[in-house]
Design a protein that fits this description.
Layout: E1 21-25, E2 28-35, E3 49-55, H1 65-73, H2 80-88, H3 95-105, E4 109-117, H4 118-125, E5 131-133, H5 135-141, E6 147-155, E7 158-165, E8 171-176
Antiparallel strand pairs: 1-2, 1-3, 4-6, 5-8, 6-7, 7-8
Helix pairs in contact: 2-3
Length: about 180
């Protein structure tokens, strides 16, 4: 994949292949199938399979030929930058949001994107004392007793911190990168 800000980078060319859970047929455990949350791509239903704790690999010699073929032509899915861009669109309008949207549209690197208890995420992954913009709102958003998403995007001299609550608008803070 092209690096951030490289000429020609776009959401369209950065899309990623569809991913499927791996599953095995209970009567033929040597063959792996692609599970799409309702059935395997070759038509096996839930009571006929056992899910594995890894993704289906269509290149694996043990892959079901029909699932392999269907997985190869499955629609691609948005890259991380596009997914975060879509979430950030809901944030309050302003120059920081616009700069982050522009950075994501150019392929800025997402250094971190995790979910967990807000207070723990703040303690381990955010240095609010280095925040240039949005610090007070970020402190409030990360002082709650609930789970949130947290993303850190680096672009040029900036590091954007995004809090993604399950309910409510995303919040964005900006600090100088490398902190």
């Amino acid at each position: 994949m092209m690096s951030a800000d490289q000429e020609g980078w776009s959401f369209a060319i950065a899309r990623v292949p569809a991913e499927f859970a791996a599953a095995v047929h209970l009567l033929r455990p040597g063959v792996e199938h692609a599970w799409n949350s309702e059935e395997t791509l070759c038509g096996l239903v839930e009571d006929q399979i056992e899910l594995c704790r890894h993704l289906f690999d269509r290149e694996d010699a043990a892959a079901c030929p029909t699932c392999r073929q269907q997985a190869a032509v499955a629609p691609t899915r948005p890259c991380d930058q596009e997914r975060l861009y879509d979430r950030v669109l809901a944030a309050a309008a302003g120059p920081t949001r616009d700069e982050l949207l522009d950075a994501l549209h150019r392929g800025a690197e997402i250094k971190l994107w995790i979910n967990g208890p807000a207070v723990s995420l703040a303690k381990h992954y955010v240095q609010l004392e280095h925040s240039v913009e949005g610090g007070p709102a970020m402190v409030a958003a990360l002082s709650v007793n609930r789970r949130v998403g947290l993303a850190r995007v680096e672009h040029g001299p900036w590091q954007f911190i995004v809090v993604l609550p399950d309910h409510g608008l995303p919040l964005i803070a900006r600090a100088t990168a490398g902190r």
